[in-house]
Amino acid sequence: MAKRHLEKLLSFCPTGTAEGERGIRHGIFVQFSTWTSLVVPPAFSPIVLVGKKGCGKSILVDFSVDVLEAKGIPCAKLRPRDLSLDDVPESASVSQAHSHAYTVLVKAAAIALGERLSGLLKKAEMTVFQAAIEAGAARPDLISKAAKFLPKVAKAVADVDIASLLPDQPKEIVANLDKSLKTALIESKSPKAVYIFLDDTDQVASPSRPGQLNRIWGLLLAARELAELSPEIRCIITLREEVWIRIANDTASQRDQTDHFYSLIRKLDPTAEQLKLIVRRRLDLAKQAAGEPAFVERYSPFFEGTRPHMPLSDVVTSWEDLIVTRSRGRPRDCVQLLHALAKSALDQESDKVVDSQVAPVVKAFSESRVDLLAQETEQELPALKDVIKTFARREIYDEGSFKASSAKVLSHLKLVPSMFSLRLFGVALHSDSNEHALRVLAFLFRVGFLNARRSRPGGRYVHISPSDEPNLVSETSRNDLQSVSWEVHPAFRDFLISHQAELLHRRS
Questions:
Q1: What is the pLDDT of residues 181-237, one digit of tens each?
Q2: Alpha-carbon distance 292 to 503, whole Å?
Q3: Which of 270, 353, 355, 485 is most buried, taking the most CB atoms under 10 A from its CB?
Q4: Contact 7, 350 (CB under 8 A)
Q5: CB 334: neighbour CB atoms within 10 A?
Q6: Which of 337, 336, 373, 363 is nearest to 449 (CA)?
Q7: Are 16 and 335 in contact (CB under 8 A)?
Q8: Pairing relationship of beta strands 265-267 and 47-51 according to DSSP bridges
């Protein structure tokens, strides 16, 4: 088998990031069944796409901009550099942040859509529009007038065939995409639209600093105010899940708007089946590019056999489950693990990924996921990697491999602050504190290090996600935790196994 197969696989699994996959995003996109529900907001309201880093927010935005513009609908994609809120002091109220953010947002949208507007405005309107852009925050009255000009650029869906934009997608999918977009826009009060996308919204501030959370709140409220001007203005905002949780639960100031936004939240939390679709799509494209006929099983050109061993175990699994279970529920992880396996095989001059190559790749990949998680949460729990290392102690697990009861986990977490200095959200934690142990457990659950499952009659159990029960771990629900068990997410187990070996070596 020629190495070109693995090289083709690498070409369809380059980075797992929106920026690195710009050239292949039309072919690899699979989120067609839910697309319109994610990008067609209710009339006079924005949509907030909330998800973990690497869950596919940016590629969804980029794909949507491509499709919408191909269908003749104007779009403005605004990034953090277009929406500077540095002039908002940390002491500013939500109302003050909202007022400033609205000016910044309207000005950025006006600049992005200015060329389209120039041919639609009367001379007097154009004078006001240009004056608003030049004056910015100094003339909020002009900004308000300029905002009302934006719906003038709205267009209905053009009768344009976009098959050439999506040549690798089945024709029936493209046809359904076209039809569903028209229907969704009509059902949301207006067949016309102008789209304003706000990507990476959390980067307009430092979410770890409570005084700056108001900046993000201000921008969310500004987007809602802009959408309220006309049913033709469609605002789509992306926000990291951990930041939404922070601003929704922060007690530094009044958060009475939180309830108003819950119906506008769209969670990007791919299921295992959706992750498998993402993996399969990449493999199918690579197989096709390598010249393999359609009837060839998708894994066989790239992987040797069908039942590889779990790393450092006699247990066998499938290649697909091995990849998906270690993804932390993030498409980016799937893609990056596929890349790592293919690259390792090529480096060893193999034609395929073989069983013996899995363990070292997965070990390194597991440690990289620990490092990434620690990096993502360094402002909230700076010592997260050290906390994770403490879970290498086998005595924690009283219900099987990497599985423990709530009592055992909480008992362990009560001891952790005595091992090293531990701060969570800026608060120093103390050993032997039930309250602090619960806080750490809630955090480990929310960031995905620990998975929760509730026992059911007959020895069965059901998994619980943080989005299903965000208040699962709290002082008030402590009694309910007796029926909840915990297991370390598979993505992190190989790191802990490696750390266990290090601990044994030190003791010997």
A1: 989 988 887 889 999 999 988 888 776 676 778 888 999 999 999 999 999 999 999
A2: 47
A3: 353
A4: no
A5: 25
A6: 373
A7: yes
A8: parallel
